[in-house]
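WARN retry 2 of 3 for item q-0093 after timeout on previous attempt; input resubmitted unchanged.
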Amino acid sequence: MQNLNRRNFLKAGLVSAGMLPVALYANPKDSKDSSYYAPRKLVRHPNPYPFFGTHQQGITTPAQKHIYFLVLDLHTKSREDIKQVFQTWTAYAEKLTQGKNVAPYGKNILIPPLDTGEADSLNPYALTLTFGVGAGFFEKLGLQSLKPKKLKDLPHFPRDQLRKEFSGGDICIQACANDPQVAFHAVRNLVRSARLQVTMKWSQMGFNSYEDSETPRNLFAFKDGTGNPTQDALNEAVWVKSKDWLNDGSYLVVRRVQMHLETWDRTHLKGQNDTFGRRRDTGAAYGQTKEFDAVEITDKSGNNILPENSHVFLAKKTGVQILRRSFSYASGIDAKTGQFDAGLLFISFQKDPEQFITIQNSLGNTDRMNEYITHIGSGLFACFAGVSQKGGDYIGRALLG
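OK item q-0093 returned
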C-alpha cells in the first residue's frame, strides 16, 4: 500500500468496500459507443388504453391483473413546484403508457439514465395511470378555496381499526397493468422525478387472476365486482358533473382490508355463502342461477331471499351503486400473529363520497363479513378529469392553472 499514490490508495479503498463509483473505472471512450444507449425494443402489443381522453384511464377501464398503488405526501408549499411535477408526470405518463422510456438513454454513460430501465424489454401490458389528490393537498398549497366540500376524511365506521401509516395522504397514483413490473416501473419513475417535492407515505401491490373476461375472485374465493354498474349507468354512478375543476373526474375511495384467512378457512361452505348472500361456485345471488342475474333481496310476499345480515343484502338495500375496482394482496406474514398478512385493496369510484359512506354505514356492525375482515387503511381522493392531447394540457391543469 505504501507504493500507491493518494489517488490509487483511495481507489483501492473503495474497491475493497464495494463502493467504487462508475466515473473512476469506466473508460471515457466508452461514452461514445452507441451500444450503451440502444433504444428500447419496439412495442409488439400496443396499449389499448391511451393516456389522453375525456376521463382518466384506470377508472372504468376493465381491471388489469396487477396494481401498484402509492400514496404521497407533499413537502413543499409551492404551487409552481407541483405544477411542474404534474407537467412532468403528464409527459412521462404519455410515454409509459405507450411502452416507451420516460427519456432515451443519454450518450454519456458516466451519468445515471433518466429511465430506470427495468421495463426495457417489456410491452406496456395495458398500463393505465390514474392520479388523485386528497384534502391535505389543498391545505399545503394554499388552495383551500378550491377544495371540494365533499373532499374530507371519511367518517369512522363501525369496526374500523385504522392505522395512521395506511391512512390519509396528499396525492395518490394508481398504476394498473397486466404485468407487475410494468406497473412498478411506472410509479418508480414518476416518483423519482418528484423527489424534491414529495415523500412516499404508503403503497400496496395487488393482483387479480382470471381467465378471459371472467370476474376475478378475492382471497375468500368469491367473485369480486359482479354488482358493478352497467356501462349505461356509469354517468349516474361515477362521473362528477360540476362547473369547477373536478368536472368529468371522480372520487376514489381506497381501503386496506385485512382478511383473516385462517378464520375463514374454518368456516363451512354454507356459512361462507350466507356471509356473502351468493354461491361461491357460480357467483349467483341467492334466488338466482347465474352470476349477473339481477339481485332481489325479497320475494313478492316481502320475505327475505338473502340472509338479512349478508354482505350483498346490506349493500343492495341502500339502492346505491359504486364502481368497485379492487385487488387482492399478500404481503408476507404478520409478525405479531404468525398469520398471513393478506387481504383486499378495496378501491371504488363514485361521483359523490356519500355513495360509499351510505353503503359502509349500512354494513355497519351487522355485516357477517365483520368476523373475517378488519379495515386498517383508508383514504379519499379527488381524481382529475382526463388530459387533452391539445393545447399543452396536463394533469390537474384546471386546478393549478
